[in-house]
Amino acid sequence: MLPTEMNSVGDECLELKKAYEECFNKWFSEKFLKGQTEDTCAPMFRVYQDCVKKAVKERKLDLWELEKSVLGTEKEKKVPDGSEK
């Protein structure tokens, strides 16, 4: 069974994520779909985005790694760097 929502990259950003998603969903259904395109949630998104960027940096996550093809290659069978116990 799949979860209905994803957590944020950092626990410290989770409440910001939930607040932004609630704002966005309300704006989208109540305003955007009725022709009001001014994104009133944009300031909240920027705060959440800054939190995510900080969490990614603190965890030293390399987002370019997400773009690499791994399935069906030798890399698929390799233990990720730093994972050895």
TrEMBL record:
Catalysed transformations (reactions): a 1,2-diacyl-sn-glycero-3-phosphate(in) = a 1,2-diacyl-sn-glycero-3-phosphate(out)
Keyword Disulfide bond: yes
Entry GO terms, CC: cytosol; mitochondrial intermembrane space; nucleus
A molecular function (GO) term: phosphatidic acid transfer activity
Family matches, as PROSITE patterns: CHCH
Family statement: Belongs to the TRIAP1/MDM35 family.
The protein's name: TP53-regulated inhibitor of apoptosis 1
